[in-house]
């Protein structure tokens, strides 16, 4: 049983997943930059704006973690699982995440940041 409230656990997981997403976006930006697209600038701009949005949200998560005395650290990884330690107000909890679950969550976040966040803004303006 976890002592960490769901809201705070979500912040800790954001601090886990968003750096992974940034790594993927940075790698994709490099690939797009090196490929022979005739009009690669729109793709690069989309990736660049997405990176900025992810960085903003990661900064907010880190600020919330600092205020809430929270920390997350990856401690072990094998072919099936990755173990993280969540430090919450002096208490430590170990959490194992199934690597395909991590990949799926990062993919969901990528979809959100690349296009679903724009859908949400459009629906709010209707």
TrEMBL record:
Q: Which InterPro entries match?
A: YhjD-like (IPR058600)
Q: Which UniProt keywords apply?
A: Coiled coil
Per the record, the coiled-coil ranges are 44-78
Listed Pfam families:
YhjD
Q: What is the name listed in the Swiss-Prot or TrEMBL entry for this protein?
A: YhjD
